[in-house]
Design brief:
The chain has a domain at 179-295 and 328-373: Rossmann fold. The chain has helices spanning 2-52, 67-82, 102-112, 125-137, 179-189, 205-220, 236-245, 257-261, 263-272, 297-312, 348-353, and strands spanning 56-62, 91-97, 119-123, 142-148, 170-174, 195-200, 224-229, 250-253, 277-279, 291-295, 323-324, 328-333, 356-358, 364-366. The chain is elongated, with a radius of gyration of 32 Å. By secondary structure, it is of the alpha/beta class. The chain is built from 11 helices and 14 strands. The termini are far apart. The longest helix is centred in the first third of the chain and has 51 residues, at 2-52.
Length: 402
């Protein structure tokens, strides 16, 4: 009886053991299956992350809001796209704007050189300077610059005598405004002109370069350059009014960003004083200036985009010299002639050169399509669309680097 009871108990435990074992095996199988699914999902995510790592992150930085910055940005994007780099596909672009606040500019520079971006493209001298400074202690991020009057004069390590000497992670273009030619044209529009006013911010390196050169050019044309300083854009209107009270016969707006942001205030003051405004930053004629002669900044942006594409293709910034690229356009506003004091007119040959003319009715007339001017120094990057590789850019700026 005891033996039978023992066998019965043994049979009971063996039966239960196998039932529990089956359940355990089923649980293990389910766990392994779930782990497999999770592993597969994670693998997909990791493959996706690996794919994302091939997307180059690009920061495009500017120091102020201006139409020429928008033109330059459009040119950069156009060239990058032409070379096969499309935002949202194989590159990711983020645009930064310090809006003339130096604290913000320094914060942006620190952020974009911290290693989160593969390339920084900067527009304006201030952006070049703040990024170059942050990059010294940052990750030495590849940096393509433009919209700078005189890069060697910006104090960022570019040698003025040998433009092949510069920080190895930096490449770009200087575009010195055609100051001498602008003064020659305004003198032809009014041969009796002797007093030309200038509002400028002495804290801007690019403005200092242009003002220094203008001081040399003006006397050779029988012009006295009369200056007024504005340390910020809110001071521009009063500075312009002070020049008018001193008897200037016209006001010149240089490439000074502080003044360009407040160009409307200068033009309004000049209109009240019945004198014209000329600039070297087209197309300020749309705001009411009489004459602009300066860089075609859409073309400058395209050149910058080509240089950025060169670097994305694998070339190092150290392979390129610091270059000057100065495609010029002329724009006119005949409407601005109305009511001026003195004898002002637009010679026929100057009008024939204009890409944009605003007539007396305010109508805009495009005289010729925008294109690479034949007299411009062509950047090396244009080899992608040129039938013949362009000659090397000039070693020094045509104007302002002396």
């Amino acid at each position: 009886m005891d033996v039978l009871h023992l066998n019965s108990v043994k049979s009971y435990f063996m039966s239960n053991f196998f039932d529990h074992f089956k359940r355990l095996i089923l649980g293990i199988v389910l766990i392994v299956a779930a782990a497999g699914v999770l592993l597969w999902s994670d693998m997909g995510a990791r493959i996706g992350a690996k794919s994302d790592s091939t997307t180059k992150r690009i920061a495009i930085v500017q120091n102020a809001s201006q139409p020429i910055m928008d033109d330059g940005y459009a040119g950069i994007i156009e060239s990058l796209t032409t070379r096969g780099y499309t935002d949202g596909q194989n590159i990711s672009i983020k645009r930064f704007n310090a809006e003339q606040d130096i604290g913000t500019a320094n914060s942006i520079a620190k952020e974009v050189t911290s290693g989160s971006y593969d390339m920084v493209i900067s527009m304006t001298t201030v952006s070049l300077q703040t990024i170059a400074s942050a990059n010294k202690t940052g990750k030495k991020v590849d940096h393509v610059y433009g919209f700078v009057s005189n890069p060697p004069g910006a104090g960022v390590g570019i040698d003025a005598k040998d433009l092949s000497i510069h920080p190895p992670y930096m490449a770009g273009y200087g575009t010195m405004q055609p100051i001498k030619e602008a003064f020659e044209l305004i003198k032809r529009m009014n041969p009796s002109l002797t007093k030309l006013g200038l509002v400028w911010n002495s804290a801007e390196a690019n403005s200092l370069s242009q003002t220094t050169f203008a001081r040399k050019v003006a006397p050779t044309l029988g012009i006295t350059l009369m200056e007024a300083n504005a340390e910020n854009s809110t001071a521009v209107s009063d500075a312009a009014a002070s020049l008018i009270s001193r008897g200037v016969e016209a006001i010149w707006i240089s490439g000074d960003v502080t003044v360009l942001v407040a160009a409307d205030a200068v033009i309004d003051a000049a209109r009240r004083g019945r004198i014209p405004v000329i600039t070297v930053i087209p197309p300020t004629v749309k705001k009411g200036a009489l004459l602009d002669i300066g860089g075609n900044y859409m073309m400058v942006g395209r050149a910058m985009g080509m240089r950025a594409a060169d670097v994305l293709d694998g070339r190092r910034p150290s392979e390129f010299r610091a270059e000057f690229y100065e495609p010029k356009i002329v724009t006119l506003n005949k409407k601005a002639l109305v009511g001026l004091k003195g004898n002002w007119n637009i010679p026929a040959d100057i009008e024939a050169r204009a890409s944009l003319i605003i007539d007396a009715t305010g109508e805009h007339k495009i005289k010729q399509p925008e294109q690479l001017p034949s007299d411009a120094t062509k950047p090396e990057s244009w080899k992608a669309t040129a039938t013949k590789s362009p000659s090397a850019p000039m070693a020094t700026a045509k104007e302002g680097s002396k």
